[in-house]
Structure formats: structure tokens, C-alpha cells
């Protein structure tokens, strides 16, 4: 049974400006393993897409559970690639849910959608 659905969109230009300014957004949004992966990226566009995608996905999750960011922290949510490179989301305290996630990018935006399903 579907328990929640959330979607978020963010402008890549907004993330790019934050990275160029001081990159505190990355420190605020990414967990340690996500930050390690982020720092390993050598292409500035890919770094922007990665951070924007994680930001949007974490916002989408908070919308799917109905709490918004604040009651749940960005760092409570971790998104790492699986063996095929697809994003997999893990959130402590939500092990009773299957979390389905999709992240996409265009030239100007990153979009993420999260669907939550009750486990049997």
C-alpha cells in the first residue's frame, strides 16, 4: 500500500552559485559517504547535478512522509548508488517502508520523486 509520495525540483543555477560561494550547502545536505562521493567527482557540472539531485530527493522524501525538512534532517537521509549506479535511499526510523526514488536532471533543473510503500 502506498503511504506517501513526494516530488521536488530545484534550479541548477541556485546550487552552482552556492558551490561557488562557499559550498556550505554540501556540508549541510550530504552525509559523510555522500560527501566522499561528491568530492571524488572531477567535473563541476556533475558536482552541481549530484548536489542538486540529493537536495531535491531529500526534500521529496520529507514531503512524502509529511514532515518537511526540519522534523527530519538532510543528514538523516542517505542516498548512495547501488551496484548498477541507481540511487538507493536509506532513512533511519523508516525501515518499515520500501523507498522508491528517481532523480533526473535537465540543463536547468534537477527533479526527484519519492514513493513510500508499506512493507508486508
Record keyword descriptors for this entry.
cytoplasm; alpha+beta; magnesium; Ribosomal Protein L22, Chain A; Ppantetheine-prot_Trfase_dom; 5 strands; 120 residues; magnesium ion binding; 39% helix; two-stranded antiparallel sheet; 3-stranded antiparallel sheet
Please tell me about this protein's structure.
This protein has 120 residues and is an alpha+beta fold. 39% of the residues lie in helices and 32% in strands. It has a single domain, classed as Ribosomal Protein L22, Chain A (Alpha-Beta Complex). It is built from 4 helices and 5 strands. It has a 3-stranded antiparallel β-sheet. A two-stranded antiparallel ribbon has the order 2-3. A hairpin with a 5-residue loop joins β2 and β3. α1 packs across α4. The longest helix has 22 residues. It is found in: Cytoplasm. Transfers the 4'-phosphopantetheine moiety from coenzyme A to a Ser of acyl-carrier-protein. Its EC number is 2.7.8.7.
| Mean pLDDT across every amino acid position | 94
Q: Low-confidence stretches at least 5 residues in length (pLDDT < 50)? A: none
Tell me the major beta sheet. Answer: 3 strands, antiparallel
What is the count of structural domains?
1
CATH architectural label: Alpha-Beta Complex
The computed structural class is: alpha+beta
* Strand arrangement in the largest pleated sheet: 1-5-4
Proportion of residues in helical segments: 25-40%
CATH topology: Ribosomal Protein L22, Chain A
The CATH superfamily title: 4'-phosphopantetheinyl transferase domain
The count of strands amounts to 5
Give the DSSP E fraction (strand runs of 2 or more residues): 25-35%
Order of helices and strands, N to C?
A: EHHHHEEEE
By DSSP (H or I, 4+ residues per run), the number of helices equals 4
CATH class: Alpha Beta
Distance between the termini: 9 Å
Radius of gyration: 14 Å
